Amino acid sequence: MTSRSGSSSARAKKAPFTKAPKTFAEQVQILQGHGLIIPDVMKAEFYLSQLNYYRFSAYCLPFEQDHATHKFQSGVTFDDVLNIYIFDRELRLLLMDAIERIEVSLRTQLAYHLSHRHNTPHPHLNPAIFGHTGRYQAGIKKLRNEVRDSREDFIRHLDRKYQEELPPIWAVVELMTMGQLSKWFSNINAAQDRMAISKVYGLHETVMTSYCEHLSLVRNIAAHHARLWNRQITKKMKLANQGSGDLLQSFHRLPEADPHLKKLYNTLTMTLYLMNVIAPDHNWKTRIKGLIETHSIDVRQMGFPADWQSRPLWRQ
User: How many CA atoms does the CB half-sphere of 191 hold within 13 Å?
Assistant: First the structure.
């Protein structure tokens, strides 16, 4: 553990930040100085006034020929970078739409199976059903706080009327975020319980557990409006080795060290598979493919294999 004096000493050895803030016009000039072609300066100033230069510059990186000097490749325009930014924003919205459906479905299945398998409306109040004691106590404490602060009429009614410490599980799951839901699911003690829920989706419980943890991170990235396109997701998910042939043949299986394994393709593929299970009439696949086509995206930046459109889940 670093002491305060040690931390202060380390900071003292660092150079002070001396760069002055730049006007939006100056920011445009910097980009032009790096070789970015900007035919409409007023348009560029407007977008930088809304997007933040540092946010925009993250989308410039793949177009640079030299990251040290930020020199752009020849012929790159402001609109080339802006196109990627707009694509990424629309991709986040599409992904959030799917995550909402998956989250609501998982809440339903977790509440249904735990209450029926353990014959109680309050399985969440029985620590024996769950594994890690510390995680269970943290989850219960979080639920207590959520119930206490909730303004939902159904929660307030149940909390006032009944003597149990918390409302029944089919009510409290509606207060769980994807992250909390993932933690409750992964902490279920019996593999048979996790398996009963996972079988609804045609998945092994280890795959479902891994995907939920991964999806929680992806959701947080998307919900905080951070970049998803070309991002490496630090929490990898386990790829299924049994179950739906369409799913198994649609994954992009790569060596563990390959950075493309952390990109978005397998996330989108698993999400599409689950959308087919829980919302068979969706048009999510068409919307994803249309978005990629509209913006002429090089999907290799997202870890897509060259033959992705011929893989079973992605075929028309």
Answer: 5
One-letter identity of residue 52: N
Least confident window among 140-144, 216-220, 309-313 = 140-144
Instruction: Report how far apart, in Å, the C-alpha atoms of 133 and of each of 65, 129, 130, 137 are.
Output: 52, 11, 8, 6
DSSP 8-state code for residue 71? E
- Spatial CA neighbour of 314 closest among 290, 293, 285, 294: 285
- Helix ranges restricted to H, the chain: 4-12, 24-33, 41-51, 53-58, 78-117, 133-149, 153-161, 169-172, 178-186, 191-199, 205-223, 245-250, 265-278, 284-294
Predicted structure pTM score: 0.89
**CA atoms of 305 and 316, how far apart (whole Å):** 17
Contacts 24+ apart (CB under 8 A), 115-121: 115/168, 115/169, 115/170, 117/193, 117/196, 121/168, 121/169, 121/170
Which amino acid is present at 217? L
What's the distance, CA 80 to chain centroid? 25
Residues in contact with 223: Cβ distance below 8 Å, sequence separation at least 6, in sequence order: 96
Task: Compute the distance between CA of residue 240 and CA of residue 251 in angstroms, rounded to an integer.
Answer: 9
Distance CA 130, CA 160 (A): 27
Report the DSSP pairing between strands 71-72 and 64-66. antiparallel
DSSP code at position 73: P
Over the stretch 148-176, which tens digit does the pLDDT of each residue have? 878 877 777 767 776 677 888 998 999 89
